[in-house]
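Methods — Computational structure assignment.
A single polypeptide chain was analysed. Its primary sequence is given first, followed by the predicted tertiary structure written as structure tokens.
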Amino acid sequence: MTQAFTHTTTAQVREALLARNEIALLDVREEDLFAQGHPLFAANLPLGRLELDAYLRIPRLNTNIVVYDNGEGLAAIALQRLQALGYTQVSLLENGLQGWRDAGAEIFIDVNVPSKSFGELVESKRHTPSLAAEEVKALLDQNADVVVLDARRFDEYQTMNIPGSTSVPGAELVLRAQTLAPNPATRIVVNCAGRTRSIIGTQSLVNAGLPNPISALRNGTIGWTLAGQALEHGASRRAPETVAPEQLLAAGLQTRSVADKAGVRRATAQQIPGWRSDGQRTTYFLDVRTPEEFAAGHIDGFRSAPGGQLVQETDFSAPVRGARIVLADDDGVRANMTASWLAQMGWETHVLDGLSAADFSTTGPAPQNLPQPTAAIHWIKPQELAQAIAQSPIDSIAVIDLTTSANHVRRHIPGAWFALRTDLTQALAHIPRASRYVLTCGSSLLAKYAVQEFAEATGATVEVLEGGNQAWVEAGLPVESGEQRLASPRVDRYRRPYEGTDNAQQAMQAYLDWEFGLVEQLGRDGTHGFRVI
């Protein structure tokens, strides 16, 4: 008997978005497929990772959740898994992604589209100043009074950067720019890999009233590369940690003023328990400082979301559109500036005021709220697996690696097959039948949730490698690299045209052309609720 599912129409999803009611529209395909086309406020939560990510990203169990795929049959499975996890208001998007198209609703490509389209809208409304790559290089070649600040994550900066630039991730810019450019005559140039973070970073400095001449590097490292100019690799320059008291005070006053103008609300510690227990409203509690600061000490119950990346990746950090967001820092600058952008993006945003050093006393990573696996787990230690492989007939044991494709290609157990849990049936069609399957991933955290479906699909014994690939490596056992045994296609991550060092010029130019068209797409979609101050 076929199970009956509740359906939500495209019109109903759009009504919820326009009314600012809470809704999580989830695309349960893998990221590369998601990036090929999705609604503006869809969040990517692949079926294979639901148990790992659902409670973190959608903390309220009675959230209105609508799931979809593109006809692959994943959405119905995702709905059942979400219900098994305790979610009570889950439905399927009527006719899936095709139904969205058929209703005449707008389809967006790429990832982090709400933030990227918002960045383009900011530039169009505020005429954010920018300089072409050739102009910036000329200034550098002339040893002009200019500093280049890279607003990306530090790891992105280390991969490639504008020669001589300094890493100052987005939320840090207003806090630290004057330390790096204390002379008001010094020109500040802000860059990222493409456009969004440089636009938002530049406009942050302008909004905060810095006296310096300020410009974005037009089109970021993509523009630099398309101009035929060389990038630097492996740089490690970072802004000083210490900020002068007078600069901190001025930045705090300015960013608070910007936040007030954007409609940011104020929160106190006394409100937090009530919001945590509110069964009718989702609240995200986010610490916008650096990951290192978060690990050294944070407020209990908050999770790390560095402000620049938070503005860039709202669909990841806060997939429930219409939710409440509460931000915290220990300086009064980063939270206010980050909040000013989220408020302009249509979020109800609060900054937690009245904090002292004693409030940041919880250390280490935030605890993970994970469900219990549905099947009993039979663990096997790395040395036991190595012996079993050596002593067993060939193909009697199949090691299935459920890590990311990038991690698998970089390093895996010899003979292991890469498989996407989302793509289980298709993956097993490529793997020779075995009497015994051993599941692994980086730590076996994900692998243990796949036991039941592997057992049902194969009828064989299924075990899980204790400690995963990391434990195998730590035991000194051999590894190999490469794409020899890919049972699933490498669609778990969309390759951004602006990351890495081997991007085709055609792809980079196409990406810029797409960004230029986002404002027009926003207008056609009509659900964004953005307001630029």
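Note: The CA atoms of residues 52 and 366 lie 14 Å apart.
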